[in-house]
Amino acid sequence: MFDGTDTVLVIGAHPDDEVLGAGGAMAKHAAAGDEVHVLIVTEGTTQQYGDDEDLIEEKQTDARTCAETLGVSAIHFGGLPDMRLDEVAHVDVNAAIEDACAEIGPDIVYTHSRREVNRDHVEIHDSTLVATRPGTDVSTVLAYETPSSTDFAPGTDGFDPDLFVDIEEHLETKIEAFGSYEIEKRPFPHPRSPEALEAIARSRGAASGVPAAEAFDVLRAYR
């Protein structure tokens, strides 16, 4: 990882999930010379803000700005309905991710944890495991935590980080990139605030002996 030889795909259910969960790692991959792609599976708008085509376009513009800040090579949009993936046929959610994997050919895939209060995130997790099942060319599948979803979920099932990535050199870039999503920002101490994102990174860093880190659950690794 982070050696400039990998193609990376980061999958998020909604615009901003990708940077919240793996923004530092994305910037680190890009800085190392890896080819980084993002897939946003839903349009991220209809359930929360109504069927507003202008807002959908605004969120896609924000996602592109975020991706550019992180050094992402390309961003892809699945266009599935926001907050209703549990009503979409499982094979259709699978297909959105499978099609992206077929087009991009990733070596490393980042996706949602299964320990999530947001049901869309759980659906994406399950479909990612289908799309990256044994026999594909994906060598590594990692789950990230999503502030205000993973941390709000009860119980202990799902997110159990066993990989910590030093993002000290990229933390400022992650926070700047998240700022592209002005509509999603919240005041501190909400987890989706710049101050909270830094606090989470510092806490994960303290747990792994570096100044700032992101934590991941290794779902699959083939060598």
TrEMBL record:
Gene3D superfamilies: LmbE-like. InterPro entries: GlcNAc_PI_deacetylase-related (IPR003737), LmbE-like_dom_sf (IPR024078). It comes from Halomicrobium mukohataei (strain ATCC 700874 / DSM 12286 / JCM 9738 / NCIMB 13541). It holds the Pfam family PIG-L. GO terms for molecular function: hydrolase activity, acting on carbon-nitrogen (but not peptide) bonds, in linear amides. It comes from the Archaea. This is LmbE family protein. Signal peptide: none annotated.
